[in-house]
Amino acid sequence: MRLLSLFALFCWVLFSSVNAYSQEVLQFDNEQQRQLYQQLTAELRCPQCQNQNIADSHAVVSVDMRGKTYQLIREGKSRQQILDYMINRYGDFVHYIPPVNRYTLWLWLLPLLVLLALLVTGIVRRSRQTIGSDAAVQPTSEAELDQLIARYRSKKP
Amino acid sequence: MRKVLFYVPLVAFLALTLFLLSGLFSDPRERESASLNKALPDFALADLMQPKKIWTPEKLKGETYLLNVWGTWCPTCNAELGYLAELRKQGVKIVGLYYELPRDPTFDAPFNLAVLQQDVQQKLTQQGDPYQFNMLDIKRSLSLDLGVSGAPETFIIDANGIVRAHHIGDINPVVWRSKLAPLYQQWRTP
Fold first, then answer.
1. Interface test with B, best of A21, A22, A89, A106 (most B CBs within 10 A)
2. What pLDDT digit, counting tens, does each position of B166-178 carry?
3. A2-94 in CATH: which number?
4. Under an 8 A CB cutoff, do A91 and B28 touch?
5. Cβ contacts (< 8 Å) between A87 and chain B: which residues?
6. Looking at the complex, does the CB of residue A61 fall below 8 Å from at least one CB of chain B?
7. Dist CA B110 CA B103 (whole Å)
């Protein structure tokens, strides 16, 4: 009996402390808003930390950005409006999906260019090789070859 | 063609090495600021020491100044106070934006202005006071609008209230001389 009450006390201490640490539960108007919030906090990047999204970060600025995202969602703003709001303040850095512009275009273009370069080199080399082997065979006539073989043989003891 | 191809791996290797080497010496926190060359966002913030006084962008126009985001909780900010105070003596106008931390209702005492004022006063007496005045950004709303990611950060605001520079990190003699002083001079004399 004493053990049981001790266990109950232990449970109470454990769960009350868990309660104290748990964050407040956010209320949304509908499921769509909740999903948008989760999507945005996963896609927005903490400007203070290296490579963490704001959902994952305890930095003050992340807490504030989460709060702002929540507020804007509750105000009925669209996904693009909220992204624009954040990018307006923190730059393209803040979104994990970079926009296609003249600086980032290379991210998509470079692999294609490398692939193309490899393909062209491969084709050129292959065609050179066939031409090269033809050129090597043609001028040497059968007779010349026989002569060479004969000379080689005669050298042998 | 063969000879050229022979050198391709070497050149590619050197290019990659240079690229990675430059990464070793670059500052990962450095990024382009989105607030440059834009007007100060709209705000109405209370003066830290005289809370009845409300500062707005309009009231700050007329002179180029540094807007320094700081807090007594931030060790780097405290470290730069001395040098900033020296700059003030040289005639640089510095306005403080006090970056108050959020409070956890479970662990932290509720916000108390008198305690904060005392804390700030003590810090400024100890380290030196660079500020003409401080604005209290209690909800960090102006900081968010300015794209502040933490403290310390410093902006150069020109006489028309346009943001002309955004520096992340502390100000020390090297940073001031090489980066901020030229910009400050440039925007002080229009």
1. A89
2. 999 999 999 999 9
3. 1.10.8.640
4. no
5. 34
6. yes
7. 7
